[in-house]
Amino acid sequence: MAGGLVKYRHLSRKSSHRQALLRNLVTALVQHESVRTTWPKAKETQRLAEKLITLAKRNNETSRRKATGILFTPHDLLPKLFGELRLRYASRPGGYTRVLRTEPKSRYDQGDSAILELVDGPKDLRFAMTAATVARDQRLGRSHNPITLLNRQKVTRFRPGGQAAFDEMVKKVGALRLGGKGAGPQNEGEAPAS
Amino acid sequence: MAALQQLRIASFFPSLFPRIASTSFQPSFRSTVLYAQHAQESRLPSVTDLAIAIPAAISQIPSLLGDIWEGILRAVPKKKTSHMKKRHRLLAGKALKDVTSLNKCPACGGIKKMHTLCSNCMGRLGGMLERDLKQKA
């Protein structure tokens, strides 16, 4: 019946076109650890990416063949997928990717845009963002927000050497001075807690 | 009595709507047959003959003037709707709305949209991660 349950976004493409698009995006994701696209495309690619990593964790001949069928450049990326990524997500029960909403791409293209990234990878933006938040709180001498604490727990939970890596990142991001050059406690509009 | 009434209607019809009668009734074969039947039956009292004769004479005038009335009696806009008026009409109630779902970026303190990354921090942190990845490789 028309207007019934839709099981996936069609993305205004026919099946073959959509399949090619998702394969392209997921190949780019495995290669670069993070892709920026529209939000609906990111959510659809997320499904395929999670399935691909599950195949990698299964790690047998059948799953290898199936993964070869998904990636466009399997010769370059299969070693990474069945090596690095498989080991990275060995203890994680699903949820290997993350979609973060971002500002629209341009003034004219006001479509919802998003970043799809591999969790705990070198381009984990949530990890860096949480570190930046902690760095700012420390600089201003404030206590952390409950959401910040939750995020810190999330980003360090399955990461090898999680807390140490996080502290390292806090130091590095603190040196960036994200709030601008004069963003010290004196020049800040809000009064510090201590 | 009923027959007389019918006759009257039949004879009045062309006088009231001369254009319709002349264009649509005469060319079709069936209607001409009906017409002939009416004509035969109408050999009746002279009073009705008179009643037919007068409107028939009048009926000639509107058919002459018919073309003139057509251009004058229709209601039409006096002026073309200006671009401004048209755009105002079409876009009424479609003005941009204010964005009120805003909060502060926890990393830099700037204003940002709720549930989205601050574009400033995203650019700088993303750039930093990119550089680190390239240095390692």
From TrEMBL, chain A:
Pfam families: Ribosomal_L17
InterPro entries in the record: Ribosomal_bL17 (IPR000456), Ribosomal_bL17_sf (IPR036373)
Top-level taxon of origin: Eukaryota
Assigned keywords, A-Z: Mitochondrion, Ribonucleoprotein, Ribosomal protein
Keyword Transcription regulation: no
Subcellular location: Mitochondrion
Membrane-spanning parts: none
Protein family according to the UniProt entry: Belongs to the bacterial ribosomal protein bL17 family.
Function description: Component of the mitochondrial ribosome (mitoribosome), a dedicated translation machinery responsible for the synthesis of mitochondrial genome-encoded proteins, including at least some of the essential transmembrane subunits of the mitochondrial respiratory chain. The mitoribosomes are attached to the mitochondrial inner membrane and translation products are cotranslationally integrated into the membrane.
UniProt name for this protein: Large ribosomal subunit protein bL17m
Annotated organism of origin: Daldinia eschscholtzii
Lineage: Eukaryota, Fungi, Dikarya, Ascomycota, Pezizomycotina
UniProtKB/TrEMBL annotation, chain B:
Record GO cellular component, one term: mitochondrial large ribosomal subunit
Primary localization class, coarse: mitochondrion
Keyword Cytoplasm (UniProt): no
GO molecular function, one term: structural constituent of ribosome
Transmembrane segments annotated in the record for this chain: none
Highest taxon listed in the record's lineage: Eukaryota
GO biological processes: translation
Compartments (UniProt record): Mitochondrion
Protein name as it appears in the record: Large ribosomal subunit protein bL32m
